[in-house]
């Protein structure tokens, strides 16, 4: 039977208790969700279209809000510091996100390759920075960036370099290093989990076909871990737009970091230093919209049929029946149930959700 | 290359009488590793490991030094007087033991927050997975949107909302937002729809069990693996959060450890002894986290497959 079929209506007539139950179960979550997500989002939208007039010379006669149209958005986007911060985050995201995703993919593939010694040890070690709060990671790295305190700077100087980790041109990449240090192991773990879900027969079939380790990685493992790569990339994009703690903490040692260094920092400054809640809200809305648009754009881009499938269709056309027959015989004899052509087929990885138990057992083994 | 690869091996297969059922894929693949590739790959892994360890190694060394030696001696090796114990003692006693209070606050925020968040996410996820009711898709769609909303985008309006309610600068201001995990609900829904046995629920109903009792006695137990994952995610998320407590809290006594240590670090320019407090405090606070992460690491794997598979 299908456990996915919800609803008891199909078998028995739902009693009133059964009709009430889902709402009772959902109530605490929904109440808190409304309080901490829906109301703030609506009020941010509302605030972003409101401006506050202070009555009296110093605002001593109270404040009056009035509808301001898109004034706050215009102010926010005309603020050179804010637009520069958006550009900075785009640059940061274009460089740091791919570097991190490529690095964690390579690490995951190496750890899962036959050639790695002590993979469990290295996996745990790489994951460890994820448990170190971003604030503490930034404190640690900031000490490693400051000349006079940092042994890294001292070491590089003794080799004749003059490193400046906190200069105007380099501090963005020093922040990128902190983010990469913190999250590479975490993303690697997602990919390792996906790699572990690839059935052994697929490797077996590839080996039979004479594929070397690089071909296995490029033609089998990477297409099959594509969903995990998409997920980690989307979360990394959202994370990039939220960047705040790292630049805020580094700003005390790096004068190049101003109070509008990242979009979030700019919104924070507007709200708490200048009490410009309308502009700050407009900026928060812009950040959230940007996160949505970038995430959906990336998802749309990657949801096209995978390249291998398109290639395979082309190839099948070109090679005609002969190739197709070869594929079929190979598929049926190699695994019995799973055609090897399904290697690039995503549905093989998207099914079978409850893998928790078997996976954690696999970790111990 | 593909077409050659497809044709070539057909004859080769018969010659290999490997019993594929008795050995695991990993063991099987171990058979074809060469010493050279093993040295290269492990060498790369060691170099990467050094990168991940450098900051933690540095703080271990730095915490053993006096402030003077911190600047005068090589940062990668011990030097000067061995001051670890006096530094640690300073950390715990400074300002009437406020460090202990910060740790306790962090434990409170992340412990209570994560337990309740997991419970609420489980109840909601199960309801969305196993009941059919009007508005189900709408509710789920809205919550899913919440996964993509940057936490910091809601923090600001949340501060304004809480300040009108008089909640800012209280424990509640950090605790309440920590009780909601849209991602946790998403994981719970995926897991419940695939692994909670509908027939068992029917059976319990026939036996006369109430809906809530079924959830508490049968469903929660069946969802345990997912609950562990959601709980751990939430603990780390709350423990590492900086933006929310930063804008909500003014009173140092309510600070979590992240905010407290940052407060100490911000004073190093004026008072150099804060270097020792900060490095000592970082060391003390990081050790339990690192141990917990390494011990609990395997619980993340399963849960993340859930998310990534469906994502």
Could you walk me through the main structural features you see in this protein, from its secondary elements to its overall organization?
- Chain A is mainly alpha-helical and 365 residues long.
- Chain A has 16 helices and 2 strands.
- Helices cover 68% and strands 3% of the residues of chain A.
- In chain A, a hairpin with an 8-residue loop joins β1 and β2.
- The longest helix of chain A has 33 residues, at 16-48.
- The two termini of chain A are 32 Å apart.
- Mean pLDDT of chain A is 78; it is low at 1-11 and 326-365.
- Chain B has a single domain, classed as Orthogonal Bundle (MetI-like fold), CATH 1.10.3720.10.
- Chain B has 16 helices and no strands.
- The chains are: A mainly alpha (365), B mainly alpha (311).
- At the A-B interface, α1, α3, α4, α5 and α6 of A face α1, α2, α3, α4 and α6 of B.
- Chain B: Belongs to the binding-protein-dependent transport system permease family.
- Chain B: Residues 103-295 form the ABC transmembrane type-1 domain.
- Chain B: It comes from Neobacillus citreus.
Based on the model shown, name its key terms.
heterodimer, A: 365 residues, mainly alpha, MetI-like fold, two-stranded antiparallel sheet, 2 strands, disordered N terminus, disordered C terminus, B: 311 residues, 77% helix, globular
